[in-house]
Amino acid sequence: MDRTALADFLRSRREGLRPEHVGLTSGPRRRATGLRREEVAALASMSTDYYTRLEQRRGPQPSEQLLGALARTLRLTAHERDYLFQVAGRNVPPPGAGADHVAPSLLRVLDQLSDTPAMIISELGETLVQNRMAGALFGDRTRFTGLARSEYYRWFTDPAERRCYPERDHERQSRAHVANLRAAYGSLGPRSRAGQLVEALLRESAEFAELWERHEVGRRFADHKTLRHPEMGDIAVDCQVLFTEDRSQALLVLTAAPTVEDALKLTLLDVVGHQRFGPEDHQPDVAHATSAWARR
Where is the HTH cro/C1-type domain (predicted)? Predict the structure, then answer.
């Protein structure tokens, strides 16, 4: 571990970022030209003291997980991410295993989206980053581990995954997931994580096995779909996608369809956030609010 190189590199990248680059606001009294140490620490989910010691060349060797979090926070390119691992004395993630490193170009766009659900996913359907609105709509999709990180795996093995779609759309969604996974399988190969997903799903899901035999291939993200929220009910949205150059990651942006009710539901969702109401709690009266909003 090269403590001097690590400290200098972290400091230079921190000072080269502005708050708006990472979705923060810069107040009128701000004097720092780049991010503050406490801001980097908060974004990377570590203590300010720990990060400060890294920049002061006296911190312990960071774990690979921590280095990955710093790489995302500091918006490092793939080459810069590899250099960070090297000076920290850790093995550089092998090709195909670095999907957790989110493309800085997509992160910059995501940081500007605050009033509409958006998330960055890998080609295996793993949610790498999601904004607050996406969390309110879908829940925290970054919390899963192992094979369950992939929404393709959860779709065929966990009934709860299907609750956010009306039952009439389940068949179409199943086919889209299998087609997306086959495209990733063809790109990454049978010995990749895509291959592990396919092997597991062939064992665990008869529905997946049947669809896999159809050999449908495609990357379907841009779409018009209906999502089901426990408080807001059905919300019709348009899904637009922005891919990285190698198509290994995609930014999904969900916007309300051009109807008054669906647009208002997303507006109310922004207010409700992650709250869930029980049967005796006051439920948002979407129909009444929609009618009142339309009369304005």
Answer: 9-81
